[in-house]
Amino acid sequence: MLPPRFSIFGGGDSKKSSGSPRRSPKSELPSPTIKLRTDKEVYRPGDAVVATVEIATPDAGGVAKNGSVCSLLIKRLGFEVRGIEKLDSQWFAAQKTSPESRQRRGEYAFMDCSVPSIVSSQIVSCGTTKTCKCIFFSVIPFA
């Protein structure tokens, strides 16, 4: 199970104790947020998959410690789209997959598309939002 404040930006758990003295809550900077939206909820064979990624950094009162403005550097952003068909609701009755296979028991992966980098070396300034819209591949394959 993930910690209560799990963050892909490394915020971690605020209740985690460490050897260093604890800072007051007012000095902590808010964590950035990421949203992923697709243009449809259900795709059919022949449809193009369009996704929108939105990354926002909250306004931390204008300046952070030492009078510097806090920004976020996105070195590389990439992800993967997988199409999975559930073969059997009784997954334990399905044949076990091989260890090197990326699909799980009772599933058939009919599509596996990864995008190594859609955004690289971008700075998101404090209190702003950057949006990236991308088409992953031209069509969903026919099963």
From the N-terminal CA to the C-terminal CA, the straight-line distance is: 34 Å
Estimate the mean pLDDT confidence. 68
Number of helices: 0
Major sheet size, sense and barrel closure = 3 strands, antiparallel
Number of separate domains: 1
Which residues sit in consecutive blocks of at least 5 with pLDDT less than 50?
none
Please tally the β strands and state the result.
5
Fraction in beta strands: 35-45%
Global shape: elongated
The Cα radius of gyration reads 20 Å
**Structural class determined from secondary elements:** mainly beta
The ordered string of helix (H) and strand (E) elements is EEEEE
| Approximate helicity band | under 10%
Spatial ordering of strands, largest sheet: 1-2-5
Note down, in words, how this protein is organized:
- The protein has 143 residues and is mainly β.
- The chain has one domain (33-135).
- It is built from no helices and five strands.
- It has strands at 33-38, 50-56, 72-86, 107-124, 129-135.
- The strands form two sheets. It has a three-stranded antiparallel beta sheet with strand order 1-2-5, with no helix packed on it.
- It is elongated.
- The mean pLDDT is 68.
